[in-house]
Amino acid sequence: MGFHLPLIFAFLSLAALALANHAAQPAPQLYWNSVLPNTQMPRAISELLHPGLYSTNEEKSTNIMNAVGNGKPTDHKVKPDDIFVQESRINYGGPSPSDKPDDIFLPATRIIYGPPPSDNQLHYKNVAIFFLEKDMRPGATMNFQFPRNSNTATFLPRESAQSIPFSSNKLSEIFNHFSVKPTSVEAKTIKKTIEECEAPGIKGEEKYCATSLESMVDFSTSKLRTRNVQAIPTEVLEKGATMSMHKYTTMPGLKKLAGDKVVVCHKQNYPYAVFFCHAIKQTAAYVLSLKGDDGEKVKAVTICHLDTSEWNPKHLAFQILKVKPGTIPICHFLPTDQIVWVPNHKTA
């Protein structure tokens, strides 16, 4: 018996260490590990898993200001010619949130129909807001900007998120919960995010606003009909001299992701992490390696819409690319705070 005691003690020590590590992990991460044991959690998600986000009203106020601020990158001085990732949805018809005519906002994959773009918007046709599949060939160059995400709102466990109202009918309760004045900018942003989540989807789109990591996992895996998935963000692998607009050269190694149906999740401006997710048919996803003229290296997730026949003929993409609806796939990058979910056909 004495011979085996060291082995028993070693086993018990390892077991205790494993239990301690398990207990230290936040609930959303435990759920991910349980449901997606073979899927690597991207940094864009793992950095949002800080527990204990809301403990005092003062902390709530600070976090809300960071989460539902104007969303513009803060690491360089704002100039009229800058282009920002302001929202996760495309809004072509209305004024920019800054009310400056020179501002334009980079698109995600959710299409909002509206009036034709203004001359000021078309001024940016030399920027890779939209591009064609041929533009992803090695050696091609595109002007773009991959700013650091300034929306730092973190995930709540699903149980906590479900205990907080998320409905336009419950706005007063939501404002009270986060100690937000109904007439404040923060309140307007909260209201807008909820209304966008409640708006009907477009034709061929299955949409859902995930108020927790657990619900985002559930929605994505259910629409892809498998738990064998990849979750991939755009990543800045090596930063250059600045974070401003640069010319990027497409490098060899274009990778097409599996499946003819993808789920894309866009981070919303909200006091805690909320992702607008939608499943889109007739869509191809790629990972593209880019190198900026300042040395910055980016692994850019690219979405190509294969069927644009239902898009408004006055859509900004057609104006920039000089093509007609339904004639050719139209592509765009995903910003760094968005995730594409695709089936993983590499493993069993």
TrEMBL record:
Keywords: Signal. Residues 130-344 form the BURP domain. Transmembrane segments: none annotated. PROSITE patterns: BURP. Residues 1-20 form the signal peptide. This is BURP domain protein RD22-like isoform X1. It comes from Prunus avium (Cherry).
